[in-house]
């Protein structure tokens, strides 16, 4: 439980996450790949700005939000989510095979590597067969990271994920048809289909077997 409390402390300090100007674009990208989904879970929903985008794009979907920081959930307008869950992605209080889609924007790098695997397993458990998991995360193989020598791990970021490694983890834990797209600010200018080295963040989309 100690490291769970640490998650709350670290994420409360990342105040810019509540104001990130790229959030809306990231969630629009999720919506491009979400397909028909009656029930969607937004992991790391923060103050709900991404949820507003999903609601505007998917209309009749039943949207749930999950975050470990209660004060952020309290800022979300009441109409955005059908239900808000204050808790952790490693133990989601939802029955098996409930959701059609799960999204997690710039989230898994905030977990330890051990909890990343547990989170993937939890996402698989709560998804229906054929449901999709979408995640964006910083790209350690991105050209700017590599040229500048800057690090992903530090502060609230507890892990980093090469696209090939994350793809393998998904396949090892009940997912298939794993696809990778460019994300991050570069995708506004060059789209999402260039080699991932051109992007400082990437989107990974996987389907539950």
SSE order and pairing:
Elements lengths: L1 H12 L9 H11 L5 E5 L5 H10 L3 E6 L2 H4 L9 E4 L12 E7 L7 H14 E12 L4 H6 L14 H10 L2 E9 L3 H4 L10 E8 L1
Helix pairs in contact: 2-3
Taking all Cα atoms into account, the compactness measure Rg is 16 Å
- Tell me the CATH topology: Rossmann fold
Count up the helices.
8
H/E series? HHEHEHEEHEHHEHE
Helix content estimate: 25-40%
The average pLDDT score comes to: 94
Q: Considering the protein shown, what is the CATH homologous superfamily?
A: Vaccinia Virus protein VP39
Largest sheet: 7 strands, mixed
C-alpha end-to-end distance: 31 Å
CATH class membership: Alpha Beta
Record field, number of beta strands: 7
Structural class comes to alpha/beta
Please mark out the parts with pLDDT under 50 across 5 or more consecutive residues, or reply none.
none
What best-fitting shape do the alpha-carbon axes yield? globular
Secondary-structure arrangement, i.e. CATH architecture: 3-Layer(aba) Sandwich
For the biggest β-sheet, the strand order reads: 3-2-1-4-5-7-6
What share of the residues does DSSP label as strand, in percent? 15-25%
**The number of domains:** 1
């Amino acid at each position: 439980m100690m490291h769970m409390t640490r998650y709350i402390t670290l994420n409360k300090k990342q105040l810019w996450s509540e104001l990130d100007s790229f959030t809306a674009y990231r969630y629009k990208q999720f919506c491009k790949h979400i397909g028909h989904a009656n029930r969607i879970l937004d992991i790391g929903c923060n103050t709900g700005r991404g949820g507003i985008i999903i609601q505007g794009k998917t209309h009749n979907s039943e949207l749930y939000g999950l975050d470990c920081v209660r004060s952020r959930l309290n800022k979300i307008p009441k109409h955005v989510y059908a239900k808000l869950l204050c808790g952790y992605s490693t133990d989601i209080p939802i029955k098996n095979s409930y959701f059609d889609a799960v999204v997690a924007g710039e989230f898994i790098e905030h977990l330890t590597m051990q909890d990343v695997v547990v989170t993937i397993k939890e996402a698989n458990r709560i998804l229906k067969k054929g449901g999709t998991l979408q995640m964006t995360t910083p790209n350690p193989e991105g050209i700017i990271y590599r040229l500048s020598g800057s690090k992903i791990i530090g502060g609230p970021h507890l892990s980093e994920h090469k696209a090939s490694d994350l793809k393998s983890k998904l396949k090892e834990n009940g997912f298939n048809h794993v696809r990778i797209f460019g994300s991050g600010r570069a995708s506004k200018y060059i789209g999402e289909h260039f080699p991932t080295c051109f992007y400082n963040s990437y989107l990974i989309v996987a389907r539950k077997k």
